[in-house]
Amino acid sequence: MNAKLPAGLLTAALLIAGCGAGSQSTPGSAGTPKVGLITKTETNPFFVKMKEGAEKAAQANGLELMSAAGKFDGDNASQITAVENMVAAGVKGILITPSDTKAIVPAIKKARDAGVMVIALDTPTEPQDATDALFATDNLRAGELIGQYAKAAMAGKPAKIATLDLAPGVTVGRLRHDGFLKGFGVQEGDPSVVCSQDTRGDQARGQTAMENCLQKAPDINLVYTINEPAALGAYTALKAKGREKDVLIVSVDGGCTGTKAVQSGQIAATSQQYPLKMAGDGVKAVAAFAKGGQKATGYTDTGVTLITDRAVPGVEAEDTAFGLANCWG
Are residues 188 and 321 in the same domain? Predict the structure, then answer.
């Protein structure tokens, strides 16, 4: 799609919610610089919070926000369409959480070649320097923290581990998985990992994955999950088998719902990240570029905190009171 697209068609394309096209969230007057936000989905609470942060920052910095999302986690085609639409609409910068970290790169290159600054949020592209900058949690560190916690919490008990992962080809999933193994002190392929299933970070898929793993290895006693929806799906499957009390579940995200699940004991610990900050800082960077031409570069770590009410020796953590006060801030 190019800048000569008829105005009526462009407007129609931009208002198709959740189909990879953008919708204007913070209207501005003619000449107001535009910033685009493209998330993986519109329904995941993590991305809802990210959009909230972008909206607030756009209003505060005098920008017009256009937003878009894939129909599902992994929907690269819709994200490509969103990039093209936003470039055609004249955005100064695009913030994106890529669903397919490799396949989105050509579309990002075209946007950058057109003079648009592109910042990845949460999930780095492959290669990482395909975008101008990255504002994200250190996802390897997030996984490492819950791996260290799980190792200490198991207190020497032999582990039978299930990993409920994201999907092939997504860097954030691989980084968290690898970090968990590193923190726990095992290598990929270690016999203690008795089952691995992809969930796309979805609660229903997480439940199915856990059911499959329990059929394969009924003695699982430790579950790593890519995020808290997958963790809650795993908990549901474990509860149906009467195993929810004797299986340790650890996760990543630290959303308000997930933190409440830690508080209630459904999840033992989670690594909390801060999507509102990612989006807010990203919008500020676009504002600076729009006003002064200075592009953001490199990686900005937006922080991670282990949240648990069952602290273990040697692993720094905050309790759920802290987690609820800061969930996705």
Answer: yes
